[in-house]
Amino acid sequence: MNYTSEIFDNPALPTADRILFFIKTKGPASTTALAQALEMTGEAARQQVQKLVAAGLVEGQLEAVSGAGRPRQNWVLTEAGYGRFPDTHAQLTVQLIGSIRQLFGEDGLERLITQRETDARAVYAQACTAPTLPQRLEQLAAVRTAEGYMARAEPDGADWLLVEDHCPICAAARSCQGFCRSELLLFQEVAGPGARVVREQHLLADARRCVYRITPIPA
User: Fold this and answer.
1) Which of 17, 153, 207, 215 could form a disulfide with 137 if both were Cys (CB 3.0 to 4.6 A apart)?
2) What phi and psi values does residue 36 have, to the nearest 5 degrees?
3) For the chain, how are helix, strand and coil distributed in percent, rounded to 5?
4) How far apart are alpha carbons 165 and 47 in whole angstroms?
5) DSSP letter string over 135-183?
6) Does pTM surpass 0.85?
7) pLDDT band at 148; cut points 50, 70, 90
8) Which of 165, 161, 167, 164 is nearest to 137 (CA)?
9) Cα–Cα dist 36/25, whole Å
10) pLDDT averaged over every residue in the chain
11) CA angle 44, 46, 48 (to 5 degrees)
């Protein structure tokens, strides 16, 4: 069971939190879609959404429809809504990166990235030991979720997708994209020489999440 199903299937969690997670992981959603996903009546979903609107956590976004029909309103997270998901010490991290760049230059910053990559490589090498590619990707997704990335691995035809619905170091990555380059290299190492890893969606390119496509390479 991945983290999304754990949240949606957990009635102990407040409905408002489940709605926020749904929009975070699935993207803009209508009241009807939320009601269906959370198995509640349309009126109950509408009431929950209105509470989130009043709290400034979600807002309406009109979606154009073909033909002469009225535009449909979907719900999206506001900046405050995104703030409900952790961004690990964002301001302090950005300040530290700036200080390292000022004191030690780009070479010093590259050494920092290399050290972080070395530490992560040791963790992933220990955690991702399964004999098959799908199993290793499931293990990688579990490790990344533990690190705050809300990750999951899912099949897509003959390929696999590693989907990360959140980035806890997004502020740091915006200050230094070497972190993203390093992570892509690590994912390729976990996949092994029998697969190719390509980033298809990137938060820093204004996508709502990061998605990596893993394509097996025929022997």
Assistant:
1) 153
2) -65, -45
3) 55, 20, 30
4) 26
5) HHHHHHHHHHHHTT--EEEEEETTEEEEEES--TTHHHHHH-THHHHHH
6) no
7) confident
8) 161
9) 16
10) 87
11) 70
